[in-house]
């Protein structure tokens, strides 16, 4: 199958979505298929990569979101799709590319949308947000032949509007992210020998709730835990968070964007605890990478992460800083060998081969295999 994949909001520094696109594309290619990824960029490009062919179309920057671009030229994208002649269309975008579902239907191409974020979660605090999310989710379900969600939590908002959903989890590179990357020298550079090394890994934007991580460490320190917070990531809230950390007297090491997977893997394996406080995560690849590295994760109970983390960490139900601090201290107090073994064992349930197989099964479901759809 030639699987043409569309995605917006992907940059060289973007995190989970970029990882998922790369790993799924590489898996499709290894299984004998022909993946083609179409993304926005500063200029047009067409290159062969390990994840398959990557076609870049010019797309404008979205103001105020830290370098993300979008595909807005519908006519050019439609011409590109027609020239690519896909056997399947896979769209990783909840709104701006919904029209491509109609294009696929007119062209006779089976299509599916992968839900990488939760509209219900993002609109939770907005008056009338639940109704708006239901309306938009119903439109997405009508636009595509199939909706794919990575967790039951992510699927729930579609079930609420009566839309059928296919479940397909994401995965983690278990050979790359591993406990053996623990680096004592890195630990010494980031925190003192008697400090608990706490890591938050993710974009410094509103939905990631980095403020919760700062307040959690502040609360844990007030309760007597010696802890240092390391933040790996950058974004529009950097200045505000720096002020917050200074006000709360939290020692924070701001690493910015961590270039290179080796450095990230070493950081995750060296941490004592990772915090993943975002309330709208539909899967949480960074948290899963931490587990694969042997590091337990404290997560928000408002997200899908409890499904991923299981007992290899802790779940905090709300926003109370004292509760977050207590959960952090409890996890840090577990015997090191036990908590690291439990984290790794949990991650081993989520390999990329199984994820690729699930996504390919979703592409095949209900459609005869082998013949190109007439264009």
From TrEMBL:
<keyword id="KW-0328">Glycosyltransferase</keyword>
<dbReference type="Pfam" id="PF13579">
    <property type="entry name" value="Glyco_trans_4_4"/>
</dbReference>
<dbReference type="InterPro" id="IPR050194">
    <property type="entry name" value="Glycosyltransferase_grp1"/>
</dbReference>
<protein>
    <submittedName>
        <fullName>GDP-mannose-dependent alpha-(1-6)-phosphatidylinositol dimannoside mannosyltransferase</fullName>
    </submittedName>
</protein>
<feature type="domain" description="Glycosyltransferase subfamily 4-like N-terminal">
    <location>
        <begin position="15"/>
        <end position="167"/>
    </location>
</feature>
<dbReference type="GO" id="GO:0016758">
    <property type="term" value="F:hexosyltransferase activity"/>
</dbReference>
<dbReference type="GO" id="GO:1901137">
    <property type="term" value="P:carbohydrate derivative biosynthetic process"/>
</dbReference>
<dbReference type="Pfam" id="PF13692">
    <property type="entry name" value="Glyco_trans_1_4"/>
</dbReference>
<keyword id="KW-0808">Transferase</keyword>
<dbReference type="InterPro" id="IPR028098">
    <property type="entry name" value="Glyco_trans_4-like_N"/>
</dbReference>
